[in-house]
Task: structure prediction
Amino acid sequence: MATLDYDEIKPRKYILVNGEPFEILESHVARTQKRKPQNQVRMKSAITGKVVPGTFHASDTAEEADISRGESKFLYTSKGEFWFCDPKDPAKRFQISDEIIGDKAKFLKPNTIVDTKIFEIDDEEKIIGITLPIKMTFLVKEAPPSMKGNTAAGGGKLVTLETGAQITTPLFIEAGEEIVVNTDTGEYTERLRK
Result:
């Protein structure tokens, strides 16, 4: 594991604080006239999800957390439990807690391959996060009827996807159509032509 100087602790880096991995969300190196520079950060625990502030002075260093990546295939959810398997070996099944999945659950559909972030502690691997594909295709289950009239001004309507998620789409989207959604922002991207 690498050691980071105070000014190398930047967003998207993972560091160890008291043996726990934290993801840096924001950092700002402040320099005042009479004081030495310091790096003020907001960091999120990769295990609990709690966001906390932190300050690193010029003499401070932090140990970079050893986070590896892998792939998992989503199988199903039952009673708040999310079940995955190794894409190469479906017999190797495991559960990822809903705290780790968070709001990404609304875009999980069976057989989706997700990237996993794995933290190794005491020779035991622990999944601390998942990343969905940026763009995914969903079937629109429910959509209010389209209204004829002034569509030049834009506007949108709330539709329900096959996973139960609700997103805003243009007025012309109908139930039964397939649309592409950006899973990072939760926004409609495009309609697939039949």
